C-alpha cells in the first residue's frame, strides 16, 4: 500500500474545485493510456461538492464520458430514487449532466430492486458485477483508477464503521447492519476492494473531521479508525481544507 500524501486547500469550495480538476486530469490520462477509465464515487457533503464542481468545470469534456466506468464505494439500502442514496445525489450533481454510457454506470441495488429487501443478496450481486468487470486482471474487483472516500467524524470511510464486522470481511462487498449513522442498513466495499484501487483519495472538510484525519495519518488501528486502512496501490491522497487539517502536527 502507498504512503499517504496530504494536500490542504483553504476551504471546502477550493477543495472541491481542486479535486474536480485533479479528477479530470487523472481520468483523461488513464483513458489515453488504456482506452478507458474507472472511478468510484462517494457521497456526503464534500463528495457531492466535488461532483458538482466537475459538472460545472469547463475542462470536464477532456474526459470521454462514454469510456468511463462509474462505481460506488457504498450505498444506503433505500428504495431507488430515495434522497438518502448516494446514487441519487451523484446523478443530480453530475451524472445527469454528462454523456455517460448508462451500461457503464454501476449503482448498488436499492431495497426495492431485484433482490428485494435483502442486503446480503444485493451485496453479492454487486460483487458479481465487480468480478465480471475485472476481466483479464483476474482479481475480484477492477483496478479502479480513482476511488474517492468521504470520512465521518468517527473516522469511518465508505460504510466501514469502527468496530463493525464489515471491517474484517474479506469478501469484496459486504452488507452492513446496525450502522451507527442512519440509515442502519447499507452496502459497502470492504478493505480488500478499496486497496485494489490505483489511487485512493480521502476527502475531508471542516473542523469536525480534524481528529479523524489525525488518526488516519498516524498509523491508528483501522478497527478504531477505519480511514487509517484506506490506502491505494500506487497513491493515497488526503485532500483537506484547512479546518480538517488543523490538528495535524507541524
From TrEMBL:
<feature type="region of interest" description="Disordered">
    <location>
        <begin position="99"/>
        <end position="120"/>
    </location>
</feature>
<keyword id="KW-0378">Hydrolase</keyword>
<protein>
    <recommendedName>
        <fullName>6-phosphogluconolactonase</fullName>
        <ecNumber>3.1.1.31</ecNumber>
    </recommendedName>
</protein>
<comment type="similarity">
    <text>Belongs to the glucosamine/galactosamine-6-phosphate isomerase family. 6-phosphogluconolactonase subfamily.</text>
</comment>
<dbReference type="InterPro" id="IPR037171">
    <property type="entry name" value="NagB/RpiA_transferase-like"/>
</dbReference>
<dbReference type="GO" id="GO:0017057">
    <property type="term" value="F:6-phosphogluconolactonase activity"/>
</dbReference>
<dbReference type="InterPro" id="IPR039104">
    <property type="entry name" value="6PGL"/>
</dbReference>
<dbReference type="GO" id="GO:0005975">
    <property type="term" value="P:carbohydrate metabolic process"/>
</dbReference>
<feature type="domain" description="Glucosamine/galactosamine-6-phosphate isomerase">
    <location>
        <begin position="11"/>
        <end position="235"/>
    </location>
</feature>
<dbReference type="GO" id="GO:0006098">
    <property type="term" value="P:pentose-phosphate shunt"/>
</dbReference>
<dbReference type="InterPro" id="IPR005900">
    <property type="entry name" value="6-phosphogluconolactonase_DevB"/>
</dbReference>
<comment type="pathway">
    <text>Carbohydrate degradation; pentose phosphate pathway; D-ribulose 5-phosphate from D-glucose 6-phosphate (oxidative stage): step 2/3.</text>
</comment>
<dbReference type="InterPro" id="IPR006148">
    <property type="entry name" value="Glc/Gal-6P_isomerase"/>
</dbReference>
<dbReference type="Pfam" id="PF01182">
    <property type="entry name" value="Glucosamine_iso"/>
</dbReference>
<comment type="function">
    <text>Hydrolysis of 6-phosphogluconolactone to 6-phosphogluconate.</text>
</comment>
Amino acid at each position: 500500500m502507498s504512503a499517504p500524501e496530504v494536500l490542504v486547500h483553504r476551504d471546502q469550495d477550493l477543495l472541491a474545485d481542486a479535486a474536480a480538476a485533479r479528477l479530470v486530469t487523472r481520468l483523461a490520462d488513464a483513458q489515453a493510456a488504456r482506452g478507458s477509465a474507472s472511478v468510484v464515487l462517494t457521497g456526503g457533503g464534500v463528495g457531492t461538492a466535488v461532483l458538482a464542481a466537475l459538472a460545472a468545470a469547463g475542462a470536464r469534456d477532456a474526459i470521454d464520458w462514454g469510456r468511463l466506468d462509474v462505481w460506488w464505494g457504498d450505498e444506503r439500502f433505500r428504495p431507488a430514487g430515495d434522497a438518502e442514496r448516494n446514487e441519487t445525489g451523484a446523478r443530480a450533481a453530475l451524472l445527469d449532466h454528462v454523456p455517460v454510457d448508462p451500461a457503464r454506470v454501476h449503482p448498488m441495488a436499492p431495497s426495492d430492486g431485484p433482490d428485494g429487501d435483502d442486503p446480503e443478496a444485493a451485496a453479492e450481486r454487486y460483487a458479481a458485477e465487480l468480478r465480471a468487470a475485472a476481466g483479464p486482471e483476474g482479481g475480484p474487483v477492477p483496478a479502479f483508477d480513482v476511488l474517492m472516500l468521504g470520512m465521518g467524524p468517527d473516522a469511518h470511510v465508505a460504510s466501514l464503521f469502527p468496530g463493525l464486522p464489515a471491517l474484517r470481511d474479506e469478501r469484496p462487498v459486504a452488507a452492513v447492519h446496525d450502522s451507527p449513522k442512519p440509515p442502519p442498513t447499507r452496502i459497502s466495499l470492504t478493505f480488500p476492494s478499496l486497496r485494489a484501487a490505483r489511487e485512493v483519495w480521502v476527502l475531508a472538510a471542516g473542523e469536525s473531521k480534524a481528529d479523524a484525519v489525525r488518526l488516519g495519518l498516524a498509523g491508528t488501528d483501522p478497527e478504531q479508525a477505519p480511514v487509517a486502512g484506506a490506502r491505494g496501490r500506487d497513491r493515497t491522497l488526503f485532500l483537506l481544507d484547512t479546518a480538517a487539517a488543523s490538528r495535524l502536527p507541524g
